[in-house]
Amino acid sequence: MSITKSQTDKIGAIFNGNRFVIPTYQRKYSWTNTEVKALWQDIQESIKDDMNHFVGTLSFKENKSVGLSTDTVYEIIDGQQRITTLFILLKVLIDKITDVNIQNNQLAAFIGSKDSLKLLPLGEDGEFLNRLLFAPQDLNPMNIRKRSQDSMFSAKLLFSAFVNSLSIKEVEERIIFIRDRIEVLVFNVESQAQAVKMFSIINDRGLPLRILDKTKSILMLYSTLHLNEELNESINNSFENIFDSYDDILVCRDRLGILSRFEENTVFTHHYYSARSLFPDTWNNRNGADTIFDNLKIKCEKLKENPIELKDFISRYLHDFENFSINYSQLISEVETNPLFQKSFRQLEFTATLFPLLVRLYVQKKLDTLLPILEAIEVRVYKLRGTNPIADIYWLSSQITEYDLSIDDIKNHLINFSEKFVNDHVFATYLDGAIYGNGAVKYILSEYSNEDFDLMSYKDFQVEHIFSKEPNYDTLTYGFSEDYNFEKNRLGNLAILEKHLNNGLSNLAPINKINGYINSINNEIRNLGGEIQKGEFNKTNVDERRMKIIDFCVSRFKLL
Predict the structure, then answer these.
(1) DSSP state of 437
(2) Whole-prediction pTM value?
(3) HSE value, Cβ hemisphere, 13 Å, CA-based, for 11
(4) Would you place residue 499 in the very low, low, confident or very high pLDDT band (cuts 50, 70, 90)?
(5) What is the maximal distance between C-alpha atoms in the chain?
(6) From the CB of residue 463, how many other CB atoms can be counted at a distance below 10 Å?
(7) Residues 113 and 133: beta-carbon distance below 8 Å
(8) Range of 111's domain?
(9) In this predicted model, what pLDDT tens digit does every residue of 134-170 receive, in sequence order?
């Protein structure tokens, strides 16, 4: 059945005799279990209430049929999330039919065959959907790395769980309902330019769309309308790698327990902050994702009357963004295997502000050399002082992208940056204060122990007050004055101890904590237990210990 220019129709009529492809300017499948479950519940309630169910507007562009096929092929401009989800649901339902002839007839009408699906996402997602529907036994969920494919896999699992308890009669009832009683408003456009334009308009007017999808869409729009589709394939290929890199970062993030605030906008904005040369007129280190996207549109709009310059800008942006994303992913992946990165990324945990610089240095193979000074900056400025200066770091990120700065040049910039916020004197002053609860304390004490703790051991450590936080003894007898609430939180009175050993020690005097200390894997606190065992351990001892740790820190986290 041919789809007219504008009509209200049933899902069954749309699928019957038609095939659908998801074009390159489209977003990837992204429905979560929340949306999938909501669709299923809508269907269940509509069947119960004996009502038709309206699922919204679908937009298509008709393509020419290929070969001898009698089916009409349509590009999905808008609605691919709903169509893909209903497609998966129909296959799950049809698989439950026991009559082989009926099952084959339903497959031919709605799904197609293994070699000729009626719905085809482009690229690897199309191959994955084919396997998901016709050879799910060959899929290992542990090997699914793309978010779109994981979402399709999850949708099928959820529908399979819902359908499993249905009788054959109930299965048939739901197939008939989807076929005859799910209604959509259909728009069919005529040209490629109109299709891309409609997609951009539909998804730029308040409907939720991921920032990477919006970016891909707007670049496709300008390539289609102003460059005769010359860059469409490049845009699609580059964003395939960008999407894959983002998905790989998510997998590594969850496995490594780092980048807790990382999201899709992060890759997009971090690239922008380190790519000032692409946006010389509008670049601002305070811009958020929406403003950055607007700047991208402004740039394309400004250049659209000059195809040569527009093509050059889009090509440079694509190349740089793709390269940045791939290296971002590779850097995070290497954190798991490169011993040099373990402490800085997994124990200290670099602040998000530093990542544009970290990635650009990684691209230029300068990160290994500069890692110690970056670690010192993280401890001094971002953790200990607790400030988050961004202007200098984003400026430097763009400088090293635009110019071939030597390692010495970059090091000088980093030294000047740290001196501006926390020089050695300021560093020692902060360390001399009441810093319990500061994000740098645990890492400082771990480094002071002069041992290489594995990640599991490090995560298990707690910052312990040697003279207790809430003592059940008179602290005056140990040389402390009335300002104990300040003194107890200074560095000399803090140590790291395993959680299970620390339990139950909280209010005790140091002499009563010895057994806990000497059983630790931390040699420094074991020695501290031995020192306490000698007797007469008091404020003087923790003051001396504080000064030793401060001297150690100034040397360990040095700038030169």
Answers:
(1) T
(2) 0.79
(3) 27
(4) very high
(5) 97
(6) 17
(7) no
(8) 6-190
(9) 999 989 988 887 888 999 999 999 999 999 999 999 9
